[in-house]
Amino acid sequence: MEIRDFLKEEDVAIDFRAADKSSLLRALAICAGAAVRLPADAIADALEQRDDLGSTGIGGGVCIPHARFREIRKPFGVFVRLEHPIDYDAIDGEPVDLAFLLLLPASSQLDQLNALAAVARKLRAPETLRRLREADDEAAFYKAIAG
């Protein structure tokens, strides 16, 4: 599975604003809600419940908040670079500036694992992280993650 299979260029943003972890998850839920036809509050609640089980901040300034929904048929992503890094309770204790939201189908364990693995693999590569942080616009940002 490739990232471009579940992330479209219109679903990325740079200079995204969020004051803290909760406001980030709520803002990402709003971005995704209309696209997947689910209430933003339901998405945000599911993301917060998942993060309560263990932080989705994977280190290196990256978080991958995710949740599963019966209503979702295929993985869907929103990817942002924050205007200012925020505390996210990441495993390395570092603030987060890159957030990749993943909404996953509850029915397919394989889709869930493949989508999460594709994102994690890409966001652990130092060269990818450099290109993402240096991107001047959304097109370059998208190309760095999905190209």
Name the overall outline: globular
How many DSSP E strands? 6
Separation of the first and last Cα atoms: 13 Å
Mean model confidence by pLDDT: 95
The CATH first-level class comes to Alpha Beta
Q: What percent of the residues sit in helical stretches (DSSP H or I)?
A: 40-55%
Instruction: Count the DSSP helices.
Output: 5
According to CATH, the fold-level topology is Mannitol-specific EII, Chain A
Strand content: 15-25%
Using the 3D structure, state the CATH architecture: 3-Layer(aba) Sandwich
Radius of gyration computed on alpha carbons: 14 Å
Based on secondary structure, the structural category is alpha/beta
CATH H-level superfamily title: Mannitol-specific EII, Chain A
Q: Name the helix and strand elements from N-terminus to C-terminus, one letter apiece.
A: EHHEEEEEHHH
- Counted up, domains total 1
Low-confidence stretches: none
What summary fits the major beta sheet?
6 strands, mixed
Short description:
By secondary structure, the chain is of the alpha/beta class.
Notes on the structure:
- The chain has a single domain, classed as Mannitol-specific EII, Chain A.
- It is globular.
- Helix content is 43%, strand content 24%.
- The chain is built from 5 helices and 6 strands.
- The protein is α/β, with parallel strands linked by helices and 147 residues long.
- Strands 1, 2, 3, 4, 5 and 6 form a 6-stranded mixed sheet that branches.
